[in-house]
Amino acid sequence: MDSYDLVIIGAGPGGYVAAIRAAQLGLKVACIEKDATLGGTCLNVGCIPSKALLESSEKYEEAMGHLKAHGVLVGEVGLDLPVMLGRKDKIVKQLTSGVAMLFRKNKVAELHGFGRFTGEQEGEAKVIEIVDGEGKVSQRVAAKHVLIATGSKVATIPGVELDYDKVGTSTEALAWTEVPKHLVVIGAGVIGLELGSVWSRLGAKVTVLEYMPKMLPSMDPEVGRTAEKLFKRQGLDLRFGVKVTSAKVGGPEGAQVSYEDGEGKAQTLDCDRVLVAVGRRPMTDGLQLDTIGLATNQRGFIEVDEHYATKVAGVWAVGDVIPGPMLAHLAEHEGVAAVETIAGQPGHVNYEAVPNVIYTHPEIASLGKTPAELDEAGVPYRVGKFPLTANGRAKALNATDGFVKIIAHAETDRILGASIIGARAGDLIAEIAVAVEFSASSEDLGRSIHAHPTLAETVKEAALGALGRSINF
Ligand code: FAD
Ligand code: NAD
Fold first, then answer.
1. How far apart are the first and last CA of the chain?
2. Ligand 1 centre and the CA of 40: distance in Å?
3. What phi, psi does 369 have (nearest 5°)?
4. Per-residue pLDDT averaged across 382-402, rounded?
5. What does the pLDDT look like over 165-203, one tens digit per residue?
6. Which one, of 212, 222, 205, lies nearest residue 273 by Cα?
7. Domains parsed from the chain with CATH numbers
8. Residues with CB under 6 A from ligand 1
């Protein structure tokens, strides 16, 4: 039986990045993955394919009309969906095989199959077995440390009958070979908005049914209101405060969704596709955690301490499988911190500086505390806001919707949070993440020279705004 310092179960962003970092730190590492390719949800059926389709569909929409404002006239615009899907698949393939190459480069052993605990020990080490596609144990390995990075799986709700075709999840919605005529999306969260936007841009009528009474309730309310206005303008039919009671194959168009509207009246929608996007759940199926005396919490997550250690010595967990936001970049940083701790270094993640981005048009990005959270904690703060309409580069881009908002402590001026809705918000928030990481003040940001003319100047101006000193607004 091969022995390792560290065996990682799951090769998503949490697992594969941890494996590479652990190898850099001199540990002998193996990473077990049940799927044929590495990269997890993010690279295979998540972040990457969705962004590929978001970019392509945005280009299509631009060509359909938005280029006119630039004085660019195009002839008849057509959609070659197989090419668009093929491009997405190619990007996924390049990136997933890139992870395999990185494993070879860093001497991480890539083990394919389903990893599970056995409860057996080999001296100090835990024995993990790997099960092949036919259910047979193909290999057993001994691990001084085990990192669980098994990620998450799609959640659903009672009454929804997934057939993974007409009534599907994000995985199917990334691969439909025809543009739906009418797509009903259940859930106006990140996936609902991103993939709803993709298919709406490509020509589908999109109705989004959301249980909560308003848009993006955990964000700054002004962001939610602006996003709702912009998405409605783009043609998304957003319905809030509704209770979906069933979704199934059938009816004249292929699928039917029933719900109770805000007044409690029963409604039914006929459509040809349904996307169920009501969240994700931690994935611990088949891990045999009980054999090592580990249990999940009531919501199915594996609890860890601030160093990502579970309550079983030598067993660690990171990413979507532990409580907290389900984000690829967070999984990566948790993976790095966990293995640095295992290697005797001070691994740490700053949860005040985790950017959250929705890649719609415009993009929506947030980080740190919202005004409501600070009000509740009794923390005094100032807000600086700068609209994209007042930025020269946004005008040149013809992308003037949105604003940047920076929240700074009223006494110390330390940056506590930010919200951005606008073009490339996901790139702009990186600067604020760095500022928060370095405990910067809005004065620090406002005095840093930003190239002109750039969208990044909106961040500087919002920081100056928190000091009552915006120049261009
Ligand atoms: P995962 O990526 O889920 O990886 C876990 C891996 O473990 C999988 O490969 C799985 O096959 C494997 N595994 C599970 N159990 C076993 C076992 N017993 N043995 C062997 N292998 C096992 N996040 C962002 O930050 N930005 C985005 O733009 C973004 N877009 C998304 C779009 C979609 C459509 C979806 C669904 C998600 C998106 N996410 C995004 C979320 C992101 O994908 C996850 O937060 C991230 O992948 C979590 O990483 P992870 O390593 O914890 O888990
Ligand atoms: P989500 O939690 O973002 O949104 C789910 C939405 O469904 C919520 O608005 C919720 O109120 C709603 N909902 C729940 N039950 C409902 C019901 N019965 N009827 C109607 N609406 C209901 O989850 P998601 O969009 O499925 O995404 C899953 C995870 O993947 C998220 O944790 C997200 O962080 C991650 N993700 C991230 C990105 C990104 O970072 N850009 C992109 C996609 C996915």
1. 67
2. 5
3. -90, 150
4. 98
5. 999 999 999 999 999 999 999 999 999 999 999 999 999
6. 205
7. 2-153+281-349 (3.50.50.60), 167-278 (3.50.50.60), 353-466 (3.30.390.30)
8. 9-15, 32-35, 40-42, 46-47, 50, 114-116, 149-152, 170, 191, 283, 286-287, 319-320, 326-329, 331, 359
